[in-house]
Specification:
The chain is 32% helix and 20% strand. The protein is an alpha/beta fold. Among the domains are: 104 residues, Alpha-Beta Complex (Flavocytochrome C3, Chain A, domain 1); 86 residues, Up-down Bundle (Methane Monooxygenase Hydroxylase, Chain G, domain 1), CATH 1.20.58.100. It starts with 13 loop residues before the first strand and ends in a 6-residue tail after the last strand. About 1% of the residues have low confidence. The structure holds succinic acid. Succinic acid binds next to helix 6.
Amino acid sequence: MIPSVLHAPAPGWTADTDVVVIGSGIAGLVAALRCRPHGRVLLVTKALLDAGSTRWAQGGIAAALAPEDTPEEHLADTLTAGVGVCDEDAVRVLVTEGPDAVRDLIGLGAAFDRSGGDIALTREGGHHRRRIAHAGGDATGAEISRALLAALKDSGVEVIEHALVLDLLKDAAGRAAGVTLHVMGEGQPGGVGAVRARAVVLATGGLGQVFSATTNPEVSTGDGVALALRAGAEVTDLEFVQFHPTVLWLGEDAAGQQPLISEAVRGEGAHLVDHAGVRFMVGRHELAELAPRDVVTKGIMNRMHETGASHMLLDGRHLGAATWESRFPTIMAVCRHHGIDPVTEPIPIVPAAHHASGGVRTDLHGRTSVPGLYACGEVACTGVHGANRLASNSLLEGLVYAARIAEALPHDLTAPTPHVPESAEGGRGGLLEPGVRGEIQRIMTSCVGVLRGAEGLETAVRELEALGRAGAVSAGAGAEPGVAAWEATNLHTVASAIAAAARLREETRGSHWREDFPERADGTWRGHLVTRLAGNVLTTIYEPLEGNRS
Ligand code: SIN
């Protein structure tokens, strides 16, 4: 059973605004800044303003900025990486509006690395050109975040930090009318409250914490996808969880957020080798180490399997100390912190959960299937990524699509609702004990990870259902309301939706790799799996692609 509302105390305070934006990564910050001219904006974030995934983004932001590059070429690389299920219109928007969006970011104060006056561009997996702009060598997200937060200071956007969003409020017509949220820790207002708004923008980021090891920060518990499902919104492509090929290997039992070793290290020439020094990606794909991410991840997993090794190696010794220091100061410091010197020894690496290509389904202006509810950034599924996101397209997607929500807003905003929003207190029960978080991560990692098969997926669905029954709706059942229980319940909702979709898709496509169905099956599976929650049950249906979708 999946709760249709998170059990919570009745709101003890209320606030009114025009637009409430949930999340403070690149998408949330841009949405808040761009929506501000259209009315009052309240930005709600789960931890501190700069604690989301954006800050951790290393490699950069992809856009056709080089004179010899074109949006058409960026489009082609994105569609190839997405393996036939990208929405071509959505990708076209991304690649054509992307270059100006990056220039706007520079206008706002983001300082990208330069080479002879021009923006320095690197390569990453799946790109046939150098088109990744970066900052601080390998600290691109941190610089973008800094620039946007500086812009936020005098913008008039109100901010609530340390607040976990709970549920969507709707008016009598079924339109989004705000959110309930819980302000954690100190400060006023505190506890559970209600923010009434004319539009709600979800920019809550990723869901990597459903797995034991991930590049995502601790706050990435899929809160936005879970909220959207409870609100009745459509969620799509959830089976396409991308595993980053190169995360620093910290031992068999490493758990939680793991250090990322950017693809840009391979873009600058580092090689993937096995323990005998063999470059195993050569011959597996024309781009070798710079093949699309799913191909490299599969190459690494296959080689680990073939050689019985627990990890592979990334050899960047030939880049030299000067390149390491100027291009990858963050990565070098993290490696050295863990006792590895990338200047003199290969880095042990392994794949780990990194990015959700799917999410809350939106149109080309971030509108979800619930009127008044918008989504942008990793929580959204705009159709840009298809079955496998192209490297460094996600910061760009956040930037472009957050701005498009602001474009749509003046046309979409209705008069403030005369109806009193429903209270989120209605649904008793259904909360899971915080302790199940580790169990959810264990199930997802062992059964719904990089390599999937029918038996494991059936086990995952069955075990997740059993966990759900433990929190079943009945008087007195379920955990006490609180942040840990709400997060565990969100993780369970999202994990259940991912496992169900992964079980249904009987083919291998992009980041969804089935050992029992190793081929892509365009005849039967070129389409989307769309998930909805109704009557405490998740339903996933297949929608074949048509028209210009490619
Ligand atoms: C990386 O730097 O490898 C991550 C970039 C991305 O996920 O797009």
